[in-house]
Amino acid sequence: MKPIVEFCASNMHHGTDRIMQRLEQDPDYEVIEYGCLGNCGECYLFPFALVDGEIVAAETADKLYDEIVKNIEEHRANREALDKLLDDL
């Protein structure tokens, strides 16, 4: 299952539009843009996105990209470890 990365159109002034476009080029991600994600405090203060429903934020849009990728990799590793554990039972 592809990770879902959601962006708020109102957050694009932080440069997240570039990050969204970059992630859209990768077929391993499902990228969705909404008019509003209902996280107005985060939206006003810094670049953010939702990754599988979890807020991922950073000081800059470029750092946000790194945090998104890191978050996805960590979740993938956790799922693989859990799958292995269940297979071993």
Topology:
Blueprint: E1 4-8, H1 16-24, E2 30-34, H2 40-45, E3 48-51, E4 54-57, H3 61-88
Helix pairs in contact: 1-3
Task: Supply Rg.
Answer: 14 Å
Distance between the termini: 23 Å
* Broad structural category: alpha+beta
Report the sheet with the most strands, covering strand number, pairing sense and barrel closure: 4 strands, mixed
Order of helices and strands: EHEHEEH
Percent of residues in beta strands?
15-25%
Overall geometry comes to elongated
Count of DSSP helices?
Answer: 3
Strand order of the largest sheet: 2-1-3-4
Briefly, what is this?
With about 90 residues, this protein is an alpha+beta fold. It has helices spanning about 15-25, 40-45, 60-89; strands at about 5-10, 30-35, 50, 55.
Molecular structure report:
With 89 residues, this protein is an alpha+beta fold. The two termini are 23 Å apart. It has helices spanning 16-24, 40-45, 61-88, and strands at 4-8, 30-34, 48-51, 54-57. It has a four-stranded mixed β-sheet, with helices on one face. Helix content is 48%, strand content 20%.
